[in-house]
Amino acid sequence: MFILQGEELNSNGELYIQRYPKLELNLVDGSSLVVAVVLNNIPKGTTQVLLRGNLSKVAYAIANTLCERDIKVATLYKDEYEKLKLRLTSKSTSNLILSTSYARKTWLVGDGWNEDEQLNAPEGTLFIPFSQFPLKKMRKDCFYHSTPAMVTPKSFTNMHSCENWLSRRVMSAWRIAGILHALEGWNVHECGDKMFNIEEIWRASLRHGFRPLAIPA
Question: What are the subcellular locations of this protein (predicted)?
Answer without folding.
Answer: Membrane
